[in-house]
Write a structure and sequence with these properties.
The chain has helices at 14-23, 63-70, 108-120, 126-136, and strands at residues 26-32, 38-44, 46-48, 53-59, 73-79, 83-84, 91-105, 140-156. The chain is of the alpha+beta class. Strands 1, 2, 3, 4, 5, 6, 7 and 8 form an 8-stranded antiparallel beta sheet that branches. The longest helix has 13 residues, at 108-120.
């Protein structure tokens, strides 16, 4: 069902893909939007080691929510910060793309857990976290991407 990577010599391990999903803060969530047009949105995310799923949060209404309700197929792409080899101008970048089914989360306890993990990717300020949960949790919609296929590769920009 899913294509194999064409440039397989650049493929990185599944473990490296997971490391990138865990450490990088943002990626692009791609959905099928209005009239079948692709809809890609920059999103912060949380990869859960326990279930191997990606979690997100956003507003309770809008283009993203409508797209999810209309078609549950999605992809999520993340790139690391890259590195340069000594004496080389070109950047080497690892990227990961995960394909799967996305769904809305209705359990408020699970939503609180997801939002807590997302905030902790950016700060360990517990007071800030508690304030955000108290003030904004009721307005947040969380969703989960169950990964069906994932690949990653290392690309040299030269």
């Amino acid at each position: 069902m899913f294509r194999q990577m064409r440039r397989f010599k650049q493929q990185i391990s599944n473990e490296k893909c997971i490391e990138i999903l865990k450490t990088e803060k943002r990626g692009i969530l791609s959905l099928i939007g209005d009239d079948g047009y692709p809809y890609g949105i920059p999103m912060s995310h949380f990869y859960d080691d326990k279930d191997g799923k990606l979690y997100f949060h956003g507003a309770k209404e809008g283009h993203k929510i409508d797209a999810i309700k209309n078609c549950n197929k999605a992809s999520f792409c993340v790139m690391d910060q890259g590195f340069k080899k000594e004496g080389d101008w070109a950047l080497n970048i690892n990227s990961v793309i995960a394909f799967g089914k996305i769904e809305l989360i209705t359990d408020i306890k699970k939503a609180k857990e997801i939002c807590s993990h997302l905030v902790q990717k950016f700060t360990d300020d517990q007071a800030y976290l508690e304030k955000e949960l108290a003030n904004a949790l009721s307005r947040v919609q969380c969703f989960v991407l169950t990964i069906e296929h994932m690949t990653g590769k290392l690309v040299n920009e030269s």
